[in-house]
Predict the structure.
Amino acid sequence: MDVIGVIPARFSSTRFEGKVLAKILGKPMLQYVYERAKQARLLDDIIIACDHESVADAALEFGAKVVMTSKSHASGTDRISEVVNPLDVKIVVNIQADEPLIHPSMIDSVASALLDDKNIIMATLMKKIEDPSLVDDPNVVKVVVDKNNFALYFSRAAIPHLAANAEIKQPLYFKHIGLYAYTKDFLFIYKNLPVSNLEQTERLEQLRVLEEGFRIKVIETNFDTVGVDTPEDLEKVKLTLAKG
């Protein structure tokens, strides 16, 4: 296989227990993610990687392929690694289980970046921030890139900072969207990288990649998502989907 999509679906969540099974207009949130991923053109297969029987049962009920993984994994990256370890696949796409508004083209964008350029080992997405109130929101991760759209830094702070005497009066700010594609080989390198200082400071796992000197390609998308971390986020998604 060339490209596989894996949806790590952990039942426990500090702020919202069992959120992957939370109902949205009669369907579990996980089902929305899976159905949208199924519409991506470049995925040869999709697997839901879960650690709880109730999640596995729900996924099997709506027709997904499921792999039960260890409950001890510290991150979705570890869970994905367990799933893909025995598989003959070149590229792995990490699809967040709490992003029910993900657009299929977003998955194809990160996958095609690696398929089209063998020098790229990891790719993710960014979306131009239209709402100024989001720039200073620490829950909205920002990213800055170089001229070739490789990440320079990710932060919860407003980057770039607008200096008082700056010639540019309206800088562009980009929101990072946590959809990732990796080569299988790099996934296992990434998994074994030591936790970094910046990662611990910002609570952003992808910073360990930059600190170790690896590059992350960042593709701009016109689509946005709403990550569901709280019941309030779930209500926003319900409202969005109800409006079509």
Observations:
- The helical segments are 29-38, 53-61, 76-84, 104-116, 184-191, 197-202, 207-211, 231-242.
- Residues 104-116 form the longest helix (13 residues).
